[in-house]
């Protein structure tokens, strides 16, 4: 059973399908909004891991903008954003945006070429109420994961472009979060069976979120 602080923050995390999440903190934070349903609340902060169409979706970003929205991403994305303030990051950067501590961490492939390390794609660690939430982005199981210190890990499980469920199990065993949540399935590639296979084998507590 995870501790009370993690449980409270878990209730604020909503999976919107694929790699997309909304975190209802003091500010409304989105990560990789894609194929959003109508009526989603406007965003204070939008985190985008890289510039592929299923992560940086200009139409979805536009739906979420309001005065004061900040988009945080790599230069390949922020140079294209219109109508919002931007914060450009690269792997290793630590920034504070609207009071939230954010860290950009590496995300890349090691046995395929869809997300080369040279592209500088990122995952994010965002701290909410003292709980560190890691969104891995599109990545394989990479050496940098051994240095992460996080409470909740959102990990891709579909294979093809990212880790397989089995590789994600290895990643979770290395990162050792208090809670793991599978993602990157249900759209484009991967299905619920990948999430279930991950959950069954994962060495840490796991929650499969229903799509909000």
Structural account:
It is a single chain. The protein has 212 residues and is α/β, with parallel strands linked by helices. The protein has one domain: Ribonuclease Z/Hydroxyacylglutathione hydrolase-like (Metallo-beta-lactamase, Chain A, 4-Layer Sandwich). Helices cover 18% and strands 26% of the residues. The protein is built from 5 helices and 12 strands. It has helices at residues 4-10, 58-64, 75-78, 165-175, 192-201, and strands at residues 13-15, 21-24, 28-31, 45-47, 70-73, 85-88, 94-97, 100-106, 122-128, 131-135, 152-156, 179-183. The chain has a 6-stranded mixed sheet with strand order 1-2-3-4-5-6. Strand 2 and strand 3 (28-31) form a beta hairpin. The longest helix has 11 residues, at 165-175. 46% of the residues are buried.
